[in-house]
Amino acid sequence: MTKSVAPTTASPVLLRGFEYRRIDVEGVVIRCAIRGAGPPLLLLHGYPQNHLTWRHVAPALAEEHTVVLAELRGYGGSDKPSPDAAGLVYSKRAMARDQVGLMTQLGFRQFQIAAHDRGARVAHRLVLDHPGRVSRLAILDIVPTRHVLCNLTRVVAAANYHWFFLATGSGVPEHMIATDPGYWVRALTGQLLGEGASIEHEVMEDYIRCFRDPRTIAGSCADFRSAGGIDVVHDEATIAAGQKIECPVLVLWGTQGMVRSEPLNIWQQYALDIRGDALPAGHFLPEEAPGMVSAALRDFLA
User: Fold this and answer.
1) Contact between 261 and 237 (Cβ < 8 Å)
2) Could you say which of 3.90.79.10, 3.40.50.1820, 3.90.70.10, 3.20.180.20 is the CATH number of the domain covering 19-301?
3) 12, exposed or middle or buried, with CB in 10 Å at 0-12, 13-18, 19+?
4) What φ, ψ does residue 207 adopt, rounded to 5°?
5) 213 assigned to active site
6) Which of 1, 105, 124, 245 is deepest in the core (most CB within 10 A)?
């Protein structure tokens, strides 16, 4: 039986036709929005965003799927548990467990996933830790965390500078972001958007609203700290065991995005069945090229 939780302060931006719910998953409340009928499809967002990342894509996908827009722990309207020194609370393993539990409570034993940025890293761990639960996986504008950290160059480090800033200890990024959350969110997204692209004012303000909560800043920084710590430990164990993603995988990336090398060649080392394509956009594919993303996902998930 699904355990719903009373809402916290509501976002002023809601997607028309979606039912909003907050569901307790083993003590962590995950906020989600649901619409449609048909095969279940979980959509996961990235940093520094929330479920609104999918606002131009989700309605089209809901014509053929039961779309679940979920917010990661530490982000949006989901719970933001206090980080721990070992990084376990915001490990991708823990964040993936949230999403599996959410889909289970919603009655979906098997489902598909499309995920962007941080959400795609959560999805990568999810399909490894819970084989058989996901029938198809779409990854947007990332290569595996382990690959990034094991193949650092000056160009890669410059493109991903925020990884290292956000992972800094002693409360440094938390303090600096809290001083002016609007500047940080606008500056980072502005650097990663493709030429001529923009995000609607009211949506950007909602992203910033979330980062005015110190718990969002702390949780998201913990997410990045875990990436270079416990997540790599888990990834190395997976590699040592010879485990790869078993379900079909679609990889989409922006020609002006964060992926600086041929992602299909990289992902072939981590998955058995890979296909994909580059789109003429920056990092935020669902927001910059929603028509092309929707078409690619509908074709892949059909």
Assistant:
1) no
2) 3.40.50.1820
3) exposed
4) -60, -45
5) no
6) 124
Q: What is the DSSP string of 57-125?
A: THHHHTTTSEEEEE--TTSTTS--PPP-TTS-TTSHHHHHHHHHHHHHHTT-SSEEEEEETHHHHHHHH
Q: Are 117 and 47 in contact (CB under 8 A)?
A: yes
CA distance 161 to 85: 22
Domain ranges in the chain are 19-301
CA distance 276 to 161: 26
Q: Is 117 a catalytic residue?
A: yes
Catalytic residue among 79, 117, 231, 235: 117
- Alpha helices (H) in the chain, listed in sequence order: 58-61, 92-105, 118-129, 145-150, 154-159, 161-166, 172-179, 181-192, 201-211, 214-227, 230-240, 263-267, 285-288, 290-301
CA pair distance 229, 19, nearest whole angstrom: 36
Q: Over its length of 302 residues, how does the chain's per-residue pLDDT go in tens digits?
A: 566 665 555 667 899 999 999 999 999 999 999 999 999 999 999 999 999 999 999 999 999 999 999 999 999 999 999 999 999 999 999 999 999 999 999 999 999 999 999 999 999 999 999 999 999 999 999 999 999 999 988 988 888 899 999 999 999 999 999 999 999 999 999 999 999 999 999 999 999 999 999 999 999 999 999 999 999 999 999 999 999 999 999 999 999 988 877 899 999 999 999 999 999 999 999 999 999 999 999 999 98
